[in-house]
Amino acid sequence: MNKTVNQKAWFLVLPVLILVAFSAVIPLMTVVNYSVQDTFGNNQFFWAGLDWFDDMLHSDRMWNALGRQLMFSAIILAIEVPLGIFVALNMPKKGFWSSFCLVVMSLPLLIPWNVVGTIWQIFGRVDIGLLGYTLDALGIDYNYTQNILDAWITVIVMDVWHWTSLVALLAYAGLRSIPDAYYQAAKIDQASRWAVFRYIELPKMAGVLMIAILLRFMDSFMIYTEPFVVTGGGPGNATTFLSIDLVKMALGQFDLGPAAAFSLMYFLVIMAISWVFYTVMTTLDKRDGK
Amino acid sequence: MAKITLDNLAHSYLPNPQQESDFALKELNHDWVDGEAYALLGSSGCGKSTLLNIISGLLIPSQGRVLFDGKDVTTAPTADRNIAQVFQFPVVYDTMSVRENLAFPLKNRKMDTAEIKRRVQKVAAMIDMEAQLDHKARGLTADAKQKISLGRGMVREDVNALLFDEPLTVIDPHMKWELRTQLKKLHHDFGHTMIYVTHDQTEALTFADKVVVMYDGRVVQIGTPQELFERPAHTFVGYFIGSPGMNLFDAQIDGNVARVGDATVQLDGSYAATGKTQLGVRPEFIRLSSGSDGIPATIRRIEDVGRHKIVRLDVGGKEISAVAAEGENIAADTNRITFAPGGINVYADDWRITPQGAAA
Known about the structure:
Largest sheet of chain B: 6 strands, mixed
Oligomer: heterodimer
Number of helices of chain A: 12
Number of strands of chain B: 22
Shape of chain B: elongated
Strand content of chain B: 25-35%
Structural class of chain A: mainly alpha
Largest sheet of chain A: 2 strands, antiparallel
Strand order of the largest sheet of chain A: 1-2
Distance between the termini of chain A: 36 Å
CATH superfamily of chain A: MetI-like
Low-confidence stretches of chain A: none
Number of helices of chain B: 9
């Protein structure tokens, strides 16, 4: 077949190029630009090479923030995934109460991050907050602004409250797609409740659970607003996660060079992890599709 | 293995059934003889799956009893009935290997390892899957998965019955024959009681010793394939079994003479019929003729289906089918049809009636 050659066709790609350039390439390049330069103000920049990256790789501050970040993500995943599955398994299968549960569970997902932060910030206050006041009245020493453990517990419980529904809804969707015949066959085979979960429900949920874990991991790995509103990263630096630290460095201290190097490394970590998830998920799909 | 007795059984999905039409399964008494192969045949929604689920214990009937060898199991859970069921869509445990799938029902019953091993080998040989024992079940084709579901039932050697709920629906046509032949062979070799639900008459007639035809929640006839063909007890059986189905002619019955339109037909006995009376004649028993004998008919079209020809005729505004042999010449001046002797069944209100003084 003869195709007409017309180089003007390139113009058709232009809108996408412009869109991607403004939304991703240019901002990213600005950050790259900052990461290899130093400035003493007055908009004067000096070439700094890879010094900032070197600095950051040897900075305790960054490693500590990364450590806290990984711990936070690990804890909330360890709670939200099993809890979400548990909730999904116990939700009504059909009828009015099933819809009711779905609506109630979706509610936390619809609340903006800083509102969630504010709710829990007030909720946990010892003087006027329902939770803080009650705990205090019960004689439990609870103060998230001064005690590191209390601050962590508050931030984690808040995240669990906000996001477990997401895992539960995805797991529920996975469960609903299992034909009744599987349960009937399991009954006939005298499978125990655990065996039904292990050999029927879990394999059928594997796909959606991977998505749930990916979403929850990425979201928690980039978390900023909620802990910032509740604890401001404190007490001390106890709940200063990567994003909070980055904002402090870039906008608080105005250390643009180190902050840019920091964000690029942050970006690479996220890319790497996403790639791992993607690879695992596509292999799973292939294995299923065969 | 066991004899399965259904005693006054009926089921309604409504909490408080008032009239007969509320019942998905109308009252029924039947014995399923130990070691026979039955097919449960009917169109979609006629209650055959309901009946199967009651036997397997997935559904508790709203009235009546189910007995296995005389023991009442009406409310016993599925696990206690010791039956095996193969479903429409193959159910295998994806993450297990074929071997683990076959061993699963035994493991759950806490059998010892050596015995499990022996039985799995034996069943694998029966279903011809010894070579794939260590494959993961998820990668297999639909028919292989269906064989595993079957194997999971057969591995329990003492099962009371093997139930099949349209097991070949998702199987490729060329594998259907293969699997059905294997099923028949397994039944022949091991003599399990088998109940096979299907809406495909070929499947039912080739598989079963006895076919149970259901229509609108009711068992309308139980019989051998030949009985269903020659003496359909209900017009539905005539219509549903056979290709094309039985022809029905509205007729007035008067003793041993039936009037169809203006023509008269001699019957083989004297009938006392009331209600809506019809003659049922299978296409195989209709003869084409010309002249003045028989019922007036005009040929609409002729379909050549290979082994024989199907002639579609117009009789008093109704379409009637006749079967003609492949080599038979169909005369252009055909204007009458007659009925072969012994090919006429008489129906009153859709049920077949027998001549007075004759045995059923």
